[in-house]
Fold this sequence. Notes:
- The protein is mainly alpha-helical and 173 residues long.
- It has two domains: 2-131, no CATH class; 133-173.
- 83% of the residues lie in helices and 0% in strands.
- Helix 1 (2-14) runs antiparallel to helix 2, helix 2 (20-34) packs across helix 5 (103-131) and helix 6 (135-150) runs antiparallel to helix 7.
Amino acid sequence: MLVELFWRFAVISALAFGGGQAALPLVERTAVAETGWITPQDFSTALAFSFITPGPVLVLATFIGYRVDGVAGAAAATLGVFLLPWLLAAAVAWQLQRFSQHPWLRGFGRGAGAAVIGLLVVTAWSIAQSAFVHWTFAGVAALALVLAVWTKLHPFFILMSGAGAGGLIGMIL
């Protein structure tokens, strides 16, 4: 199981153009749909907590690995998801500066960015399907969107408020 965790997360990291958030659809497909390691609700919860922890969103891999095979699974998934990007970044950092203004590289970045937006919409849709079990949760999401766009309130406070509201709503429903 440790080898599978490492390998699957290494593949996810190799395909994650645009950073950790771009990899979320791959993580969800792998951990929920293909392997059944976690439920859609577990994925949503783990994703929410990964957004409030310092560092990259793909710390989510650590949670999934832990759920699959304890501390060893957490280590295998974490190493799998972060080893390749670290090696690649170290190997090409000095070259990127030299080619940063090349039209092909700039176009590549813009195209990959557009693809990331599409993948994030798919992930948001999937999370919404498991999160919006009652209309009030859609209201929490709408309020969070308004607060995130039109205020300077830190995302941590928006997320914690949404979690608190969800807890209260859950007790009432």
